[in-house]
Please model this.
Amino acid sequence: MKKFTLRLKLPVFLAFSVFLCAFASFDSIDEYVNYLQKSFTDHYDVNQESDQIKKYELNVTNNGFCRYKRYFNNGKIEYFAFKLAKFKDIDYIGSTLSGKLYLHTKSDDVIVQTYNDKSGDVDSMGTCVAIPVKNIEAEDLNQIREAFVKLTASGQVIKP
Model:
């Protein structure tokens, strides 16, 4: 009788475990990437640099990169990029109406390139990317930081 009870308990326990796992929330890499992309699109403040910048591109990719490209009215182009696995922390300087979001990396991990500059093209490395933002609350900043941390910790973003 004990063997019968044990054999009955095991499948019931497994079925119950599968049932609970069906309702578990597993956040995917794409969800974090999409959240960051939407946050940057919604909060980017083009007015902070509108007299200098013609257009910009700000992308967080699911293959593990954050890229920010600015096209100036005089033809100059600035490009910043870093691997999400190298992310360290964020800082924000400003108010809830407008400010700058600084994305810091662990070391000199930000690729900085300039093109069509009067003083010549420059390739260098940096430790942060500064992004002008507007209408951002502390909760938004915390969620952005959390998304970066989860992407960095997952280790999956480094795979193309």
Observations:
- The mean pLDDT is 84.
- Residues 2-22 form the longest helix (21 residues).
